[in-house]
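Q: What structure does this chain adopt?
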Amino acid sequence: MTDAVFDHPRVAAVYDALDPDRSDLDAYAAMVTEFGGSRVLDIGCGTGTFATMLAARGVEVTGVDPAGASLDVARGKPHAESVTWIPGTAVDALPLQVDLVFMTANVAQVFVGDRAWADVLAVAHASLVPGGRLVFETRDPDRRAWERWTPELTRHVVDVSDEGPVEEWVEVVDVRDGCVTFESPTIFHRDGVRIDSTTTLRFRTRAELTASLRAAGFDVDEVRDAPDRPGAEFVFIARKVPAATDAAALTRLLRRRDAAGLFADLDPWGLVAIGAPRDEYTPEVDALLALTRPVTPDEVQATFTRMAQPVSDVDAFGLADAFNAVLARHPEPAT
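A:
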């Protein structure tokens, strides 16, 4: 998962200068023409380089990203006025109908948990027209790219306009269970300010990715090479297979999203799985959010007791009201 540094205004302002060569995006822009697309959703659009590139070519683009500071930078770029910018996670872009959904750079790998990955695939599926395509890149774990993420090999200093020299490097601090966590500080030499960043990326195998796409209602048309890192990455091109499950999947996503806000203060009670993003609930709580009828206080008490987090009668009634507010806001679609 990514960390809050991408929402830091000073870091966001120098992000593009620290990574100025985005020729890797040319191949993705060419795919819009190749597949005859005119409407695009850019998930994890960041500072908007790809979104504004497409907008300059007359493509109707929606860019979504949870980092407000990055979106502020994006809004200041040429052609930004032609892009619809949405602060939030992928589900916040819905309802939407596009021809292509993209996740470039590290975006597909920041969805560490299987639930989070399944959810973003469900959003892509719901937003695409029948036959529309999802395109994303992800590193091949067999190449073990993280072994070269060391301060000695990655440290560089860039002279940034209005900031002077800015330094950064990457250092891996943990590798386990298909996930790599690394630190990457940004140091401003002008005043010595250091802003730390910790990011975790999930390295899924080609077989895992193919299976997850099929489970989400996609056919994998092709897996290409990344032009900037040949042999090191997979570029998946997956086509939407029409399904009747989009509405139900979207309802579940919206319920979890809204519950995250309503129950934000309940983490000590075990509402959110330990170490998981806020929208990844324990299975017991997720079952309550999947109900097609109102939740009762008794069910709340039983659920939290099974989670070894018993609640009082008063708390049970309040929690039941909170659950039911979410269920009422997003009712199950008619069958």
